[in-house]
Amino acid sequence: MRVLPDVSGIDRCFDYLVPDELGDQVRVGTVVRISLHGRRVGGWVVADHVAPPPGVRLLALAKVTGWGPPPDLVELSAWAAWRWAGRRAALLGAATHERAVPTLAPSGAPPPVAGGPLDGLAAEVAHRIGREPVCVVRLPPASDPYAVVQAVCRRGPTLVLAPGVRQAAHLGLRLRRAGATVAVLPRDWPRARAGGAHVVGSRAAAWAPVDPLSGVVVLDEHDESYQEERAPTWHARDVALERARRAGVPCVLVSAVPTLEALAAGVLLTASRAEERAGWPVVDVVDRSQDDPVRGGLLSERLGPLLRGERRVVCVLNRTGRSRLSACDRCGRVARCETCQAAVVHTADGSLACLRCATRRPLVCDHCGSTVLRNLRAGVTRVREELEALARRPVVEVTAATAGTSLPDAGVYVGTEAVLHQVDRADVVVFLDLDQELLAPRYRAAEQALGLLARAARLLGGRDRGARGGGEPGRLVLQTRLPNHEVVQAALHADPARVAAAEHERRSLLRFPPAAALASVSGAAAGDYVAALGRPLGVEVLGPDDGHWLVRATDHRTLCDTLAATPRPAGRLRVEVDPLRI
DNA sequence: CGGACAAGCTGA
DNA sequence: CAGCTTGTCCGG
Q1: What is the bridge-based pairing of β-strands A14-17 and A59-60?
Q2: At A94, phi and psi to the nearest 5?
C-alpha cells in the first residue's frame, strides 16, 4: 500500500505492507496509522498493489483508523494539489471526517426526492442538464432556488453546496421534508460515505463523498466564502466543476450575479426579463456627483424621510472606526503619521493612530497645531452617531466584531458589509458610499460590489414582495458619484449582464482572470521561489509589491505546471492560486 | 513535522 | 573537550 502521511512538511508517499488480518479493511482512501521515522503518524492509503522502490524493507501498517474518502476523491486530491499548488494532505483532510469512522451503517436507498411538476426556469434546467455538462442559472436575488435543486436531485444522489452552514442546514431540512435521504455535512459524513443520499453542505462539502454522484448544484456560486483562505486556496465551485466533469454528471451553478469564471464554464440560463426584474428590489440612485466632496458628508438629504419613518433600515459603510481620513480645518492638510506618512485614523478614544506603524498622537494638526480636524472619511462608529441624530430613533452598529452575538432589535442598523450577513430582512438598504466599493483597488471590485448589492437585495425581497412589509416594495438606495457605473446600472435594471460584459472586456484587456491565470506569492522565501521559477513561455512575474509577487500565465495549465516544477526553498512561503483580493 | 546527527560555540 | 545550540537531512 502506498500511504500519504498527514504531516505538514512531508508531501510524499511511503509504501507499507498490509497485514493479512487487515486486508479486507484497507482500500484506497482508508485512514491508517503508520510508523514513520520512529513515530506513529496518521495518513491515507492513496494506491494499492504498488511496486515498492527497490532496496527498502517495508514496515507493516500500524493500524486502520477507519473510513476515508472514496478513490475518486483521492484522485481528485492529486489534481487539486496541482491546481492550487498545495499539499495533497490538506485536500485529503478536507475529504475526511474529523473523527475516526471505524464502521458505516448500511445505506438504504429510498426514493431520492419527491416533488410536484417543475415550472419556469427549473423546468428549463431539468431539460438542459441532460445535454449540457454545465449550466449557469441566473436566478434573481429574491427567488427561491429550491426548485432548481429539486430538478437536479431527481436524477439521483446530488451534491448541493451553499455558501454558509445555515443555508445548507435549511436546504437539508427542506429536502428531507420532501422525502429525500439527505446527509448534511459535516455532521452526517458517515451517512454520505455509505451512499444513496443527497449531500448538502458548505465549502468543505465540495469534498464530501456522494455515491453514486448524479449531479452537482452550487448555490450563490459568486460567494467568496467558497474559496478556502488558507493555502492551498481551493475554490469549492471549481472543485465541484471538476468532480462533475470527471464523473460525467451535470453541474449547475446558480447565482443572481454569476462570475465570469462561471459564465466561461457553461451555458447561461436566465428567467424572463419580467421575472428577473421582479426578483430585484426598487433601486434609488442618489447621484452625489454635484455635492461638495468635503462638506457634503455621507448623509444626503434623501435619507431623512427614510430614516424617520417606521421602516427597518440597514445602512452599509465598509469602514470601521470614527474616521479613516481627517484634514486640518485651518490649514487643510491631511492628517498623516509623522513616522511613516500614512494617513492616520481617528480612534474612539480621541487620538490619531497610524494603522501601518502603530504610532499614536493626540488630535492635533502636525503642521499648524490646530486641534480642529475635519472628518473626510467617516467610519461606521461616527456615522452611527450622525444617523441617530437624523433618524431620531436608536441606531445599532454592526461590524464583523458583533458576529455571533444577538443583535439588539432596532429600526435602523449601520455597519460594514457584515451587517448584510447579520440582519436577515429590511425594508430599506442604503449604501452610504458605494463608490468605495466601485473604486476599490482590486481587480474584482465591480463583481464584488454587485455581489454586495445582490445580498442586500435578498434582505429586501423583490419589488413585488407580498404580505410582509405592508405591501410596500423594498428599496435599495445607492449613494454614488458614479450613477452611470455599470454596477449601479445593473442593479437599477436588474440586469447583471451589464457588469459581466464590461468586466469581460476589462479583464481581457488587462489580462486578469479568467482571461489569464494568477498566483500571488508571499512570505520570507518568496523572492527565492520566484527567482527559481525562471521565465517559461507564457509566464510573467510582476512585483514585488509590499512583499507580494504576482505570477501570471496564459492559462492554469501553464501556471500550475510551472509552479509544480519549481522546488520550494526553505522558509515561509505562501502560494495563493486564483487570489480574489488583489 | 520532528528525531538524529553533525557542526559550531562557550567556558573551564 | 563536555555540554549545549543551531542547522540540515530524511523518513518505506
Answers
A1: parallel
A2: -65, -25
Whether A570 sits with its Cβ under 7 A from any strand B atom: the answer reads: no
DSSP state string for A391-417 = HTS-EEEE-GGGTTSPPPP-SEEEEST
DSSP three-state, residue A496: coil
Strands laid side by side in the A323-328 sheet: A360-362, A351-353, A345-346, A323-328, A373-378
Backbone angles phi, psi at A69, to 5 degrees: -65, 150
Single-letter amino acid, residue A303: L
Q: Percent of chain A beyond pLDDT 90?
A: 72
Q: Could you read off the pLDDT of A389-420 as tens digits, one per residue? A: 999 999 999 988 888 888 888 899 999 999 99
Residues A260 and A504 sit within 8 Å (Cβ to Cβ): yes
CB environment A229-238: b (16+ within 10 A), e (fewer): eebbbbbbbb
Which H or E element spans position A486? helix A486-492
Whole-angstrom distance, CA of residue A199 vs CA of residue A62:
32
C-alpha A403/C-alpha A335 separation (Å) is 32
Strand order in the sheet with A134-138: A182-184, A198-201, A158-161, A215-218, A251-255, A134-138, A267-270
Q: Which amino acid is at A142?
A: A
- State the pLDDT at residue A467: 45
Question: Which nt has its C1' nearest the CA of A570?
Answer: C8
pTM given for the model: 0.92
The answer to whether some atom of strand B lies closer than 7 Å to the beta carbon of A38 is yes
The separation, in Å, between residue A246 CA and nucleotide C4 C1' comes to 56
Q: How far apart are CA A465 and CA A471, in angstroms?
A: 7
pLDDT tens-digit profile of A251-300?
Answer: 999 999 999 999 999 999 999 999 999 999 999 999 999 987 666 678 88
pLDDT tens string A523-564 = 988 998 999 998 899 999 998 998 999 999 999 999 999 999
- Which 8-state DSSP code applies to residue A291? S
Look at residue A377 in the predicted model and tell me its pLDDT.
66
Report residue A207: phi and psi, to 5°. -105, 15
Cα angle for residues A422, A423, A428 (degrees, 5° grid): 140
CA dihedral angle for residue A336, residue A340, residue A346, residue A347, rounded to 10 degrees: -170
Cell 453541474 belongs to A251
Nucleotides of strand C within 7 Å of the protein's CB atoms: 8, 10-12
Stated in angstroms, how far is A570 CA from B7 C1'? 19
Q: What are phi and psi of A70, to 5 degrees?
A: -70, 165
pLDDT digits (tens, 9 = 90+) for A206-240: 999 999 999 999 999 999 999 999 999 999 999 99
DSSP SS3 for A347: coil
